[in-house]
Amino acid sequence: MSRNERSRVYLVVIVTIGLIALILLSSFPGSPLNQLTSPFSIVLEPVQKVVLNFANGVQTGAMSIFKGVQIRRENEQLLLENAKLRNEVAQLAAAGRQYDELKSALKLKDTYDRYEIIGGRLMTREIGEWFDVFRIDIGSQDGLKVTETLSYAVVDAQSRLVGRVLSTDMTSAKILPVLHEGFSVSGKLNSVNGALLRVRGDYDLKNDGYCIVDQIPMTASLHEGDVIVSSGLGGLFPAGIEIGKIIEIRNASSLLNRQAVLQPSVDLQNVSVVFVMKGQ
């Protein structure tokens, strides 16, 4: 590009910038340029409007972008605060459950003062040779020792029967629950001089969450809704632990082989903390 051509380009740029500045300054009412350029306002007014609209559009767009960024930052902060509040609520709920469990454990200790009450948390639910066996986080290092003649009753925080300790290792123990077909306990009707009977797990009923009641005396009067508790016979389960309630009386050919269906009081699907009752 020659010197003359560059000079013409510079001149066009300078003139253009000057015209834009003139248009902008003359658009402000009361300014000297507005008064001086008033004869040309009619001609320049459309151009002024285009320039002003463009400037306003740029300003509005910039403000929208700024506000959008600000809103996103505020939303991110609110999300963080919301997550923090949810975490605090969850912690408070967990603390409340632990407090309730502790109160129940103390009540359990007062009721069965002849027993050492050892709390444990559910670790896994195992399926294998022994179906639906629970594993908890206490074991022989906590004083639990299981033999052919020695075991321990296991209850929940509300003193409802969960099962018995099946085996232990150094840091954990397996719990045989009341629904398991290998489980049985001597029970009685929860009444004065209530009849003795047996509660045991049943393979066909356990998937429905029920147990069988059998060995019912001929003279026993059994009804739906009756509550069964442990009798204390045999020395393994303390007397008076709630086992469940009768929900069905099965028809039998004679009073000798009567059976009933029992729904355990404990919610085995949701139990998370249990208490082992170790005799002193």
Radius of gyration: 42 Å
Give, in spatial order, the strands making up the sheet with the most strands. 1-2-5-4-3-12
Low-confidence stretches: none
Number of helices: 3
β-strand percent reads 25-35%
Decide which structural class fits the backbone.
alpha+beta
Biggest sheet layout:
6 strands, antiparallel, barrel
Average pLDDT level: 78
Q: In one word, what is the shape?
A: elongated
Tell me the number of strands: 12
The helix-strand sequence is HHHEEEEEEEEEEEE
Helix content: 25-40%
Q: How many individual domains?
A: 3
Alpha-carbon distance between the two ends: 108 Å
Describe the structure.
It is a single chain. It is built from three helices and twelve strands; from the N terminus they run αααββββββββββββ. The chain is α+β, with helices and mostly antiparallel strands. The protein folds into three domains: 1-111; 116-177, Rod shape-determining protein MreC, domain 1 (Thrombin, subunit H), CATH 2.40.10; 184-266, Beta Barrel (Thrombin, subunit H), CATH 2.40.10.350. It has a six-stranded antiparallel beta barrel with strand order 1-2-5-4-3-12. It has a six-stranded antiparallel β-barrel with strand order 6-7-8-11-10-9. Strand 1 (115-126) and strand 2 (133-136) form a beta hairpin. The longest helix has 74 residues, at 38-111. The chain is elongated, with a radius of gyration of 42 Å.
